Amino acid sequence: MQQYLKYITALLACASFWVGLSAQEKPAKLMERFQGQMQAYTAVEMHIKLSGMQASGLAVPSAESQIFFQSSDYALISEELEVYVQGGVKWSYMPGIAEAVVAENDASNGDLLDNPLILFSPSFSKFYKLDGNTVSGSRDGEATTEILCRPLDKRAAYSALHLVLRQRDLQPLYIKLMAIDGAWYQIDITQFTVKDAPFPVARFNFSPEAHPGVYVTDLR
């Protein structure tokens, strides 16, 4: 009788495990909902903070940036670098050395480090595969869901990308990148604001005239 009870208990435990897995939303479906939501927003402003650990064991210098985006246009503003993308044009401005580079914007670039909006785009699946099941967790008292993504390009500088969303509204909380050299980087989204109206067009344009003395390199 005791052996029979142990057998039944084991069966129930297995059943509970599989029911729990089936109740989880599949990563592809969740990613589709998340990207659809991001695409539907009129405009978004995000504040992000970078941290991490180098392969040597030294901490990555903390850095903060602002990102503004709507549709396929975006601007990234930090102390060391400003990037402005509108349509097919991309400006990169380095305030410290008063130099700016203008080039054609490659919207098909799937590298998150070069194209931060790829994570919010349906074309993400062309460059990354979703690995395993979603993982539930919590942060600051809020339930979270983690999606593990791996770049299809074997030449990518990182081997895995962890996207963590707040369960109740799919707001992105942070992204963790695992570099192939053993380093890791975490991008915390410290502020996420959905705008009711589009940003002015000037938000995504760099004006050399407004930066006297800047040296411009045109690669178009």
Question: How would you summarize this macromolecular structure in one to three sentences?
Answer:
The protein is α+β, with helices and mostly antiparallel strands and 220 residues long. The protein is built from two helices and 13 strands, in the order ααβββββββββββββ. Helices cover 16% and strands 42% of the residues.
Radius of gyration: 21 Å
Provide the CATH topology: outer membrane lipoprotein receptor (LolB), chain A
Q: How do the helices and strands follow one another from N- to C-terminus?
A: HHEEEEEEEEEEEEE
Shape: globular
What is the CATH H-level superfamily?
Answer: Lipoprotein localisation LolA/LolB/LppX
Biggest beta-sheet profile = 13 strands, mixed
| First-to-last CA distance | 80 Å
How would you explain this protein's 3D organization?
The chain is an alpha+beta fold and 220 residues long. It has a single domain (24-218), classed as Lipoprotein localisation LolA/LolB/LppX (outer membrane lipoprotein receptor (LolB), chain A). The protein has helices at residues 2-23, 27-40, and strands spanning 43-53, 63-70, 73-77, 82-86, 89-94, 99-104, 128-130, 135-139, 142-151, 158-166, 172-179, 184-195, 215-218. The protein is globular. The model is unreliable at 1-23 (pLDDT under 50).
